[in-house]
Protein 1
Amino acid sequence: MPLTHLPPPSSRPPRRRSRQIHVGSVPVGGDSPVSVQTMTTTATTDTDTDTTLRQMATATAAGCDINRVAVPSQDDADPLPRITARPPIPIIANIHFQPRYVFQAIDAGCAAVRVSPGNIMKFDDKVKEIAKAAQAACVPIRIGVNAGSLDERQLVKHGSATPQALVESALWECSLFEERCFTDLIAVKHHDPQTVTSAYRLLAAQCDYPLPLGVTEAGTPVQGSIKSAVAFGVLLSEGIGDTIRVSLSAPPAEQVKAGCQILQSLGLRPRQLEIVSCPGCGRLQVDIHRLAARVEAAFEGFPKPLRIAVMGCVVNGPDESRDADLGVSCGNGKGQIFRNGEVIRTVPEHRIVEAALLEEAQHLSP
């Protein structure tokens, strides 16, 4: 059986039982699939609205389920009706400074609102009104705590943004809404993966909120993806986490691709395209890095889930190629093509991608 279609490991512990909410059309928590979020890097002002919509469309095409936008000013709040009217996925409004933007976001049709915890004490006299408006519109409120927005009392008590400080701060902030009979999403983020895993374990044991996972300010694409994969891999393998965001210093679509890859690697999302390629060694008789990149580019957006093996020598290549849906093992200027474990043909090196792999992929069952 090709690896693409293998069932997920049976050793994974049960999913943490959380209440289920809906962010627009996307269920979060309960037994719903783990969703992928991102956040636009553009302003939502009138002059930037089209740019924001294009960025959302690119992220959606990459596999995004939920998109967030920043609303720090009135100029950002005013175009929200136009933004929520067009995207095919739900929009969360990140509200930072003024509680009146919460009401505007709800009226504009945002699927959820994230209240900046660093300002929640300033919102205290408005929490009852916010909870009432959100309840009436069935709009979840997301409470998110990280090292940069920790309650100052917790910093005094714990000395730094420890896991305990993050959790205590988050639960206190949620209690303000619980007093008004309204609760929904809660997150505790940090830039250190070990702090993130510890904090979410503590939080998961103390509440049944759906949990959005994130390593905040994770860094550049390579470093940030690794840090996020480490934290998410541990937590999701323990059944903790209901939606994820990979926070990279990279375009939103790249964040989404990294998130989808993490879920696919854990068996939590159907596999799409996966390239299995060797790192290279002195036995190579082909430019394996260039060949793997060509294969990846050629199959981007392919309508069937595929695992393609790209091997650069005849030592391990043939057997490793047989374990994929499609494979090629290179040597002496030629490529041996495999499909579902069977040798199909041998072609010249320059014909491997377009004339062989792409053609053979059409014969695979969906």
Note: DSSP finds 13 helices and 15 strands in the chain.
Protein 2
Amino acid sequence: MNGGISSLPDLENEFPLSAQLVEEYQEKGHVCIRNLAAQEEIRTYRNVIKDAVQDYAKQAAPLEERDTFGKAFLQVMNLWEKSKEVEKFVLAERFGKVAADLLGVEGVRIYHDQALYKEPGGGHTPWHQDQTFWPLDTNHTITMWMPLVDISEEMGSLSFASKSQLEGYVSKLGISDDSHATLGRRIEEKAYDIVTHGAMKAGDATFHNGWTLHSAPGNPTDQTREVMTVIYVADGAQVSAIDTAARKKDQQQWLPGLGEGDLVDSRLNPVVYQK
């Protein structure tokens, strides 16, 4: 266990991001950054994130009783609100600066975080677009996906349809068998290259655009695939039309008190990096 917030690594120092990585992200809509967090850093934060996940995941149904989405992972959102220790990780300036630099913007805010724990025997994550669910009127959204444990080739990391972000909003389908089939056909029709970054060490991270089509394999191993994600949105972005039930739910949950056309600046959307 950790010895309190003061004993946790601060994650505030700058990470040297190459121009090549920025160019790769902007062209393909995804990139893998190795060693974004050092092994000793991620080992410490893994403990506090795992403790928080366990506290809020006890109500999950047994794996065999869940639908396709439920079998994909245990999902616990906005842990930064529930744990001061996790808040230090989620609001880390190091990660926020990388997100801003990849997007090419002056600053970023948090949209929300998600712990995604794919259990042994957990199912695949169907093809989907994240921003389908987000009422954000901007293309400058990005998700950091960071494993808290080493991920083998067998266990699998995310697969991305390179350059699919250039299409923007493709489908209103939720994450489901239907989205996997429908978007899978679209990927074939458009001849998008499917790229996976393979095995990853704890503290490596992928970043992908909110419109990038992506999926993940199931977990055939006996180890839980522990991943922490943070979603960033460019500072100055506005709330989009609340035109679906999913976006209405997100607006109520992550943008409290805000309506269409308002700046994304609720109490749940603090600035984490500004040039």
Note: The two ends are 35 Å apart (CA to CA).
Protein 3
Amino acid sequence: MKNIFTYGFVFLQVLACKKSDNSIDKVLENYGQGAVLRTIDQSGEFNYYAISSSSFTATIEAHYKEDGGLMQNVEIFVSADGGTEAKLRTLMPSDFQVGPTGLPRARFTVTLAEVQNTIRFSGGRNVASRWQHNLTDGLSFTAKDAASSLTGSYFASPYQYNLIVGCFVTDGSAIPGKYTMNMVDSYGDGWNGAKLVVIVDGVTSEYTLADGASGSFTHTITSGSTMSFSFASGDYDEEVTY
């Protein structure tokens, strides 16, 4: 009986020395921390017929990796319809101030005139403003690093803002024709209450994406009418483009 106990003890020792096959241990071996640019708010639109006065404004909050590098800078790149990117400008740590949560915040504005001086575009084009968060330890984080769990959650961190350069007539006179609006939701669950409001000759029509990732509508406007197009906010506007 004594010999059986001794062999069993040796067997347990061998098992204890083996490397763990637990999934959590494999995850922790490859675990790292990064940085996120959280979107606090955003507003504005681009109008091809009012380039000098069109702008997009947003407030971002920088979340750093713990016990590691801090912000070196935030680079802003722009492109039209997925074309070649060009750097618009660079935000430095001095452009950020400590916000209510104790983390750095910056409020920035991108003007359409600024974009025009950087890249070529025309009315109806999609202008993407991509952000790259560079840290002092050499790591960088941008749109491709933002998983879906970040883009529609508390962080609202797409690292990229997409704006259609609209052709909005500011004096209300209608440009006759058949208008097609293509609506996209990056999270794929509809517009969450947001909508496009079309007013023609005083009659209001509202269009939204009730569910899913994309949809479209058409609206015909005749000569001699008055018209206006506007966007009404809902929840998670950072997921919405049109």
Note: Residues 2-17 form the longest helix (16 residues).
